Task: structure prediction
Amino acid sequence: MIRLSNTDRCHTQQHRTSACRAPLRSGMALALFALLALFAPGLHAACSTFLGQATLNEIFNGSGTGGGRFMEVKLLDTTIPATTYANWRISICYVSGGAQSCTSIALGSEATGPYVVTGNALSTDYYYSSQNTAMDFALLDGSGAYIDYFSINGYSRGGVSACAFPYDTSITLAQNPFNISRVPDGTGDWSYQPGNSGLVTEASSNDGGGNGTLHHLRLLHDGQGLTCQAEPVTVHACADAGSDATCTAFTDGVAGTVTAGSHSLAFSIPAGQSSTQVSIPQTTAATLALGTSVAGYDDGLTRCYVGTTQQCQLTFVDTGLLFSPNPYQQTLPHQVSGVASTIYLAAVRTDDNTGTCGPALSGSQPVGLAYECLNPSLCHAQSMLLLNGASIVRNNAGAALSYSSINLDFNASGIAELGFDYRDVGSIALHARLTLSEPATTLIGRSNDLVVRPHDLVLNIPDNPAAANHLGDVFRVAGDDFPMILTAMNALNQPTPSFGRETIPQLPGLTTTLVAPVGGVTPAQAGNFGSFGLDCEGNPGQAGAACGQFHWPEVGIISLRASVSDYLGTGEVLGTASGNIGRFIPAHFDLTPLLQAAACEGGAAPFSYYGQDGLETEFRIEAHNRAGAVTQNYRDNFAKLALNDWAVYGFTGEGLPDGLSLASTETAPTGSWQNGVAEVLAQHRVSRSATPVAPATLRILAAPKDSDGVTTDPAQAVHDSDFLLRHGRLRLQNAHGSELLPLQIPLQLEYLHADGVFVANTDDACTVIDLATQLQLRGSGEWLAADQPVLLAGGSGSTSASLGAWENGRAQLTLSAPGVGNTGYVDLRSLISANQAWLSHPWQCDTSAPNEACARATFGIFEGSPRQIFLRERY
Result:
């Protein structure tokens, strides 16, 4: 037996308040859980609170490329600390010799999230003893509860089906696998690589490189090397064909060899990275063919690029021009747009005796300088590079070069200083050419590909009032679009016109910071920037700027910051914070009825009298955004609907007779906002006309409206079924009898029936008329409280009254017998117009109280026969 308890107060109030309902709800929930625990199959297999927050991600055999064995878990919630997941275990069950065997291995903390690896944990006895072994794996938390699970070839341990795992939990193997992994990581379907070949993805993505496939390797070089120093070449791994400017990086790791003529140079790109560098030490002038080799891959893996031009020959010369950040250092660092820096151009030759680099010339020399736009491959119409303050001619990628001639002073070491100032963004290469007459030769040089990044990413939000707090002006409804303009700027606060025109546009992301309310939620912005160079109407606009339509689904004030996580491989570009954006307000309110109570609930038909307080509606009100989701930041000062003010709800009544209306009571509504949701308890009454009206059913609607104008559209009902309304009155009936016996006066509660007549209200189990305060007696004197003795009028003697219990709208007032010879009468009237006016009626039996019920009780009218001692009737 399940026993539910509650307070006496809750029983008497008949579930009107949420305080009374809570114990009932919790009691039923506990009872239901107890029943499920006793009878539901498989519940002994507990489901972890971490279910859905981490998954099994990869099982690696180790007999293929890379060796070793490991199992890998992907943390979908990266905030889970190592001290927590170190206590997790991977349980393995399988069939051996016709019996089930299980083992478990501690996850430990061998790697940081999101990929947590347990290495060398698998025994061939378990997983790879034969093909198509039937077995399963389970990820268990520290208490042994299930976090994730999957089975191989239909095998399953008992009881695990009770957990509703959100991701794929099975795989069928056609042959012995190299590894089994989820694609995409963490939440994808299980797949496998057969045999003993494949790529190791320990502690890295299973997705990159086209499901673990390396497409090609790119050798990036500048086309010319010097025999006096080793020439750097970048090895970049690609997961797809890409274009001449870029490709999708392959990050699963790869190792192999770079060949350059007779040179063979080993390289290794670790998992999680996509490139490395080798240096070719060629000491004699020659043109070398470049190539690569990787075990397990066929020929044709190599592509070579000088800028965006495919070229697999690298020419070494004894004399040339070398761009460098420091003397004879070959790689120029990446730059920031509009920030002036110093670079060097060295005229270098190989020393005949030492083979080291030395100066090729000195003094003032006219040098041809140019820059080539690599990404984007088409230069902006205006030359954007200044070297030593002079504008340098631009060249599109792969085009025949045009040069600007500038006199440079080479010092005794053959080095000239150059002031570098590029006011655009993108990847470029510098070119230099110097023609000598003695000996007649032309020295050329090309820098490495260098990336110039934006200095800032600036956001502009038109018409934003930038509210400081909850009192600030409204900007947008939560979820409605608003325009936002992003402009990439250089350090001189000028737009950089090439931003967004990269081969793969470097579109920025937005970071949202909640300014107010404090403690609220901070969902991300939704929306996209349009094409760079177009304004918000799609017409040609500012180069380097783009307009987008965005929306934020919450209430409050925010700040935004734009950033590019990795601009052309050079790291993050972080823009300036926008300042305050907002205020954002809800789109509308939504109401859900919870409970209702008529003024009188105890009878067969709950009802309320016209004019009576006590109609109660309890309902939930939610602040919603444009998409219909709750705006959780509608709280504190940002909640502009005053829940204790009956007038703000816009209550209206449907079904009322003409001339009657819905009104408030002296009891104000109650409720409080909690993350955009409030439960409100409101009381109402319906006005009462002087002329009795027939019963009606009332439907109460609400259209709450806050100080920002947020409301419902249209008004919504706040209760599930209609209220029954009745026009009531109290009726007292005359009585007469012997002075020798007590006399009873009937009191009856009535209502106007639909037929137009008053009938007894037997459903009234609520009304009580108090003898001392709501009834009066008058005999030979003034009106007295009915609980006081009164002298009879028109005769002699006195009487006193008592009132019986009210039942089904009726009660009996009993007057005591005044005794032998004491005859006369007393008048009785109600006193309810002030505090129970809904029971008044124009009886007009007392001019001083025309709306009070009245009656007369007379003693001595039937005194009986003086000769009769005893009378008995037989039937």
